[in-house]
Amino acid sequence: MKTIYLIGLGPGDPQAVTLGSLAVLRRLQHVYVRTGRHPGLKILHAHHIPYKTLDIFYQKFTTFAETYRQLAYFIINAALRFNEVAYVVPGSPLFAEKTVEIILDKAPAAGISCRVLPAVSFVEALSAELQLPREKELVILDAMQPDRLLHYPHKHVLIMQTYNRQIASQVKLQLLALYPAEHPVTVVRGAGLKRGKRIISLPLYKLDRLPWIDHLTTIYLPPVARHETGDLLQVMRRLRGINGCPWDQEQDHRSLKPYLLEEAYEVLAAIDSNDSANLCEELGDLLLQVVFHSEIAAENQQFTFYDVITGIVEKLIRRHPHVFADGKAHDAAAVMQKWEEIKKAEKKDRQTIFTVENYLPALLRAQKLQRKAASVGFDWPDAAGAWDKLQEELAELKDAYLTGDEAKIEEELGDLLFATVNVARFLNLDAEQALAAAVRKFYQRLLFVEAQARAAGKELSAFSLTQLDAWWDEAKKQLNK
Known about the structure:
single chain, alpha/beta, Cobalt-precorrin-4 Transmethylase, domain 1, Helix Hairpins, 5 domains, five-stranded parallel β-sheet, five-stranded mixed β-sheet
């Protein structure tokens, strides 16, 4: 039967190659080595085992993905031609070897059997050198997959395949998005070797300044985060579980509604205050509400927190085809239009596309409804129409006021407010936030006037409107500085 033997050279020391691997290599006539740049090959020289290196593939192709794919197909074709071949890789074949993954996936369809002969991986060598923690606290990442480098800030991380300073620089820039510039990293070259081994610890921002980084180099990062999502879920289960907190145990979705709304508004207040520490705390309180509701749902076998995560991840990917697929969007307006189109297709069972939640505040509901109308072309061509409508509604409110008809006055006031929201939309402003800012400004000025009255030793009602207006004008000057 046609067979590919997948053999590991170990982390570097020639003595790490197993006796079983040597026996197979001695027997086979066709031995291929992914790269000739590995000290473990000395054992093949010592036993006079001929082999062919495949470093030329790294020169022929521009990306690592294409290089690995072509390497794998070459080995599969060699097995089809010669029946038995050995493919030799650094470390262990089952540890972060993309070519081996491809071979194991594609070879069976070609009628080829694969036999893996494991070896000591670089993880064992590094663990011995650095006395790393047990497996459950350790994550192995690939420098060639930068999108995964920020996934495990709460774990001990090993980053392999840091072939040169250029790749080290790319890794550094990616990590700096989460890890502090002074975060300690340890760079290890030639772990397990008797000669040529180098180990140095330095701050992250200096990572790419080492001149000796090469294909035998691995980077180690200690954790930067004390806790992760699983810790929060565990705390929530403890609070809701036996011998937990009586208050937490009594809550359900409905009883938590006021707290969810309150925490959302406190997040908004933190944003307005420009207090990053407070924003961090309030976002944590809001996240707790999500976890709380998810845990209640899990207890009732409805859904879990991970279902919530899966749902939003898949929705974001589905509704951003210009990022994750072959769609195109040249600006934010095109993104929003595409979002609504996809959303409409997803919710075909709805009788109307203009469904807006009744429980939303009136200003927010008006904004959402107007955006939905605009998404299907029912809108003014430009802001001029919205401005004219605002003036028209103001005139109608004045006319209604002169009639003394309270119902008509209320109706026209509502129309005026709705038209104001429309103008805000054309100005790319959020009407809810604009009104909230106006309320805050009014409140601060009132506090200033009240403080002046108290300083004068009297109640506000004791002063004339002229004096109050004077203090109000002073408040405008001082608070707008």
